[in-house]
Design goal:
This is TTC8 protein. The protein has about 525 residues and is an all-alpha fold. It has 27 helices and no strands. Among the domains are: about 50 residues, no CATH class; about 90 residues, Serine Threonine Protein Phosphatase 5, Tetratricopeptide repeat.
Length: about 525
Amino acid sequence: SGGMGPDMEPLLRAWSCFRRRKFRQCAELCSQLLEAAPGEQILVFLYFILIQAAWSLKTRALTEMVYVDEIDMDQEGIAEMMLDENAIAQVARPGTSLKVPGTSQDAGPSPAVRPVTQSGRPITGFVRPSTQSGRPSTMEQAIKTPRTALTARPVTSASGRSVRIGTASMITNPDGPFINLSRLNLGNYAEKPKLAKALFEYIFHHENEIKIALDLAALATEHAQFKDWWWKVQIGKCCYRLGLYREAEKQFKSALKQQDMVDTILYLAKVYMRLDQPVTALNLFKQGLERFPGEVTLLCGIARIYEEMNNISSATEYYKEVLKQDNTHVEAIACIGSNRFYSDQPEIALRFYRRLLQMGVYNCQLFNNLGLCCFYAQQYDMTLTSFERALFLAANEEETADVWYNLGHVAVGIGDLNLAYQCFKLTLVNNNDHAEAYNNLAVLEMQKGHIEQARALLQTASYLAPHMYEPHFNFAILSEKVGDLQRSYTAAQKSAEAFPGHVDTQQLIKRLKERFAML
């Protein structure tokens, strides 16, 4: 039949559904084909080819239903951070480590101007897996780090994906798994390259059985006489997921020698980033740019690394290069806008965020940023309107809390301290772990003369966010006022550790030492 109606040949209809991304319908049609008995008019040989095609197509459809690009999924969880056996130098040379804060060659923004993460890196303008959480130094800090998966399970390197993949078989096949992996003869499939590739992706993405996938890839690459670069990349991906980073590095390098691919460069850079070798990753990206000039993903990779290394000026330059190649790149626009805002240029930041609005980005975070830019650019008519829209679009309590916190800042800026107090209280109603709100509430309580309430709030803030210097410094000032010099000195030391360049902290420590000398 020439049309697309019900008379269409079933396998062709299933293929049409696959092409139109209707994967569930495609899988159901393939299941019907696999369960149907062969007709008398069909030769056994043709029937075998039909069944093989239907099996392969169903495997690909099930894989696509849960497929997540490995390049962008790179979040270190508690297990990876605290049980990492890779030996890494504790005292890194300046500008060579992501895990040791304060080793940037180029002085980044001050923590007094731009908030920092738990690992001492400036908060970026675009949420990525690698920037969502810092690298805690103790197990206690790791456990109390805010969860980004919003689940009670400990975050692993594939948090969102593992939650889905764990139940993927049950979702797609109520009668049981489509392929019984324990009974597969991997050697037979390895000799059939087209089937083997579909089967590998099914095992890797759908079933999440990395070891079985690695066995299949090893047999297939051996059958291909180690000349197929695709299988080497897959072995590298399996090794990366299993934590065998050096083995993954070897496989990706070998694949690059056979076939120069942008994806392979990105995978290899991921390995170097996990091994805390950002300089090697930068060199790899720059070599890649020589072979693939103007490649957006490579330019963006360089910009991300510079941003994580606190080298904001270089990061901005590369984000501008990204925009020269792709002027609708959301991440580059957002990061440049964020950098402009923290460089005391809210008017320019406002232009970038308005550009995102023109492109169709319409979410709570964008209106939140627009509200702040309008306030600091003295465009007060738009400030409250933007925050109202942000509250309306907030998808969860954490987002609502951030909007109320920023509204509190606006209230402080216009001198309405009662409104600010209510905003910070509403922040804590929505997110009880918001350390910045506790700190600012404590300052307002100090102004009212409520010393004990302020002290309790500051202790809570410093416990929730030990990487922030403000709660420690405020607690030190408060303790000094009430005559508790020992606590004041301890808190001042913690403040100096969090922000060594803070002049007021240094002056306070000097004053306290003089007081101790007099005693």
